[in-house]
């Protein structure tokens, strides 16, 4: 990408993040910062839902203990009068010429993110039910294909990744680690006589 992120990249990134965030481990389970980058080289469909699928696979491959895999699908709509057809996995032309772009992300357990753009005044309860049911079937199909590649997070993070080791120190022994009061250490850098540690 050239230049700063634009409205489209920011909006689609936030939607993809919401889709994946629901299955992320807690800070106690995985005390690492996670950064996922999704490079979209061509967009003739839903780049945000492709990013959800790719992020889910990448996180599991990296050893992040996500609760389950997530996938996304973009649903479309063609409506004329009382007749309508709901489309699955719409292409760019179907998005441009159709009446709805309805993105649904989630796992086998349920939905984690939704976003709807419509060009008509509103949709009926029937259209919503059909779209959600059709999206569920498509999502489960995509998850089945993804599980053929990797069906669970790897047992551990890469041997090349930074590691965090946590130890608990008895509060009475903290002064043995940081010094009395936590300041005025002899400085390891000989150019400065002392360095100070702020305990706040």
Tell me what you see in this structure:
Helices cover 33% and strands 18% of the residues. The chain is α+β, with helices and mostly antiparallel strands and 200 residues long. The protein has two domains: 7-149, 2-Layer Sandwich (Ribosomal Protein S5, domain 2), CATH 3.30.230.70; 167-200, no CATH class. The strands form two sheets. Strands 2-1-3-4 form a four-stranded antiparallel beta sheet, with helices on both faces. A hairpin with a 4-residue loop joins strand 3 and strand 4. The mean pLDDT is 87. Keywords: Nucleotidyltransferase, RNA-binding, Transferase. Its EC number is 2.7.7.8. One of its GO terms (biological process) is mRNA catabolic process.
Fold topology:
Layout (H helix, E strand, L loop, with lengths): L6 H15 L25 H15 L9 E10 L2 E6 L3 H6 L2 E7 L4 E8 L6 H25 L24 H5 L6 E2 L7 E2 L5
Antiparallel strand pairs: 1-2, 1-3, 3-4, 5-6
Helix pairs in contact: 1-2
Quickly list its features.
200 residues, alpha+beta, Ribosomal Protein S5, domain 2, 2 domains, 4-stranded antiparallel beta sheet, 6 strands
What is the count of DSSP helices, taking H or I runs of 4+ residues? 5
Named at the architecture level, the CATH assignment of the largest domain is: 2-Layer Sandwich
- Strand content bin: 15-25%
Q: What's the level 1 CATH class of the largest domain?
A: Alpha Beta
| The number of domains | 2
Say which CATH homologous superfamily of the largest domain is assigned. Answer: GHMP Kinase, N-terminal domain
Helix content percent band: 25-40%
Number of strands: 6
Structural Rg: 24 Å
Q: Which oligomeric state applies?
A: single chain
Structural class: alpha+beta
Order of helices and strands: HHEEHEEHHEE
CATH topology of the largest domain: Ribosomal Protein S5, domain 2
User: What separation lies between the terminal Cα atoms?
Assistant: 41 Å
Based on CA inertia axes, which overall geometry fits? elongated
Spans of at least 5 consecutive residues whose pLDDT stays below 50 are: none
Can you summarize the main beta sheet? 4 strands, antiparallel
Q: What value does the average pLDDT take?
A: 87
Q: Spatial order of the strands in the main sheet?
A: 2-1-3-4
EC number: 2.7.7.8
InterPro entries: ExoRNase_PH_dom1, ExoRNase_PH_dom2_sf, KH_dom_type_1_sf, PNPase, PNPase/RNase_PH_dom_sf, Ribosomal_Su5_D2-typ_SF
Organism: Klebsiella pneumoniae subsp. ozaenae
Keywords: Nucleotidyltransferase, RNA-binding, Transferase
